[in-house]
Design a protein that fits this description.
binds zinc ion; elongated; about 100 residues; 5 helices
Length: about 100
């Protein structure tokens, strides 16, 4: 059972961003300052990330999106090395196969 974490170990970064640390101990996201909703975490990976950085799912998505760029087809994070998201990459492959390329 996932529970909002309110006891956080102080990291060097917390000394610089005291406010962020305090938000975390109040069960809030240090980035958007909204209360953490544990239901929102999509998977185990997001949850692990939360346990490390304390960020909510939507802030994690934003950071991720900035890091990897956006899929030109649907605007979701481009999670595939081809520059598309996995879904679009997959459907593109299927279309190409259906059309008889390669
Ligand atoms: Zn947030
Ligand atoms: Zn896409």
């Amino acid at each position: 059972m996932r529970q909002v974490k309110t006891e956080w170990q102080k990291r060097p970064v917390d000394l610089m961003f005291r406010e962020g640390y305090e938000l975390k101990t109040q069960g809030k996201c240090p980035t958007c300052k909204q209360p953490i909703n544990v239901e929102k975490f999509r998977d185990e990976l997001s949850w692990k990330e939360y346990e490390i950085a304390g960020m909510c799912q939507s802030c994690q998505d934003k950071v991720f999106e900035e890091a990897v760029g956006k899929c030109p087809e649907c605007g979701l994070p481009a999670t595939h090395p081809s520059g598309l998201c996995r879904d679009c990459h997959q459907s593109k492959l299927e279309t190409e196969e259906a059309e008889g390329h390669e």
